[in-house]
Give the backbone structure.
Amino acid sequence: MGVQQAVNIAIFGMSLRVLNELKERVISAVPNHIQVNWSNIAEPQLDILMINHIFVDSPNIQNLIKNSNIKVLRLINNIEKSSLIENDILYLPINHIHSLHHWLNEKLSGAPMLKDQPQFDAIENAKPIQHKHIKDVLDEIQNPKNGKIQIFNNDGLLAIADPRNEWLWQSPDYQSKSTDLSLNYTYATQNNLSWITDSQQQDLKQWLWNLIWSSPDFIELCPASTSSFYLEIWPQPKNKIDRQNILRMSACFAQGAQITTVATQLNLSEQYVRLFIGACLATNYGKVIKDHQTSYQPKKQHNETEQHFMKKLFGRLRHRLGF
């Protein structure tokens, strides 16, 4: 089996539509002898980062750039300069790939970043962000010591939040109800806040709870070792389809309950219940407790046919005995 050179590239902070378009353009522009591996910014062997310019000054991004040999290409929307690259800035939209082809050749040609890799290696080999990292991000999003912050993921800006006062303003461009583990934050400048006056103010924790609930990747926020949970604050679900189940789980865990007991009693999967608890733990709506601290005791449900039979039997007995 032959080998070919490979490069790890991450595209960060763009909408899904732009993300897919950029991937197509890069594949067309990269030298033929190089295999492109689409990566996450958490990839320790990242070679090239293409990033929405509004996130470049983020402390997390700056720290990443300063402590690595990553080549950075900033992305800015500018129709008049469309497709051009100047000073490591690519102006969108891309109508031709000449400048991109030249930039990639320049950055990749003879660079130590190129690695031998078997052709059969998967292109999508990005390593997931670790559980500890996402928990830290969620804690900081809710840290009252922080001023206004931007909440974003790989698709772009999700919202502006004010952790100190527990308010949030969702970006009008963010239409999805879920996210993945690329969720992150950075501090907001005055320029970032221009649109929030026209956006509805929401409760930060409730918004965050609903976001996590709608994102299956966050199930590990409920550790496998967790067996019992006590709910202190009831969530306010936005998803009408799941609302009944969420309220039923809330009623059980508000008494302190075991996960397996609730799953069995409500006829729900344990994974479904753990996602609920993970969202509650992430937003400090409850706490893990010991099994002996639980109070919830499921009521025994009799089959309706059995109840009807017993009622009819007792009626006949009363009649025969003259009661």
Remarks:
- The chain has three domains: 3-118, 131-213, 222-323.
